[in-house]
Write a structure and sequence with these properties.
There is one protein chain. The chain is an all-alpha fold. The chain has one domain. It contains 2 helices and no strands. It is flat and about 55 Å long. The N and C termini lie far apart (44 Å).
């Protein structure tokens, strides 16, 4: 309101809700485009998955390398 972009608190709330709705739509599009096909692939070929202990070990090693690099 101080900048003059919104006339009152109601406009601010409306703008915030519109922004959240846009983020929700983008998230749902990502779910459909990226996550669902990945889950389908995992169902078709469970052997293609990397065990979580291996993933976390790789992440820890990567993090340790980054810390060592400074």
């Amino acid at each position: 309101m101080a900048s003059g972009a919104c006339a009152d608190a109601g406009e601010i709330v409306s703008a915030g809700l519109e922004a959240l709705a846009g983020q929700g739509a983008a998230f749902m599009a990502w779910l459909r485009a990226e996550l669902l096909p990945t889950l389908d692939e995992m169902d078709r070929d469970p052997g293609s998955m990397i065990p979580s202990d291996e993933v976390f070990a790789d992440l820890r090693a990567h993090h340790a390398r980054r810390l060592a690099e400074g």
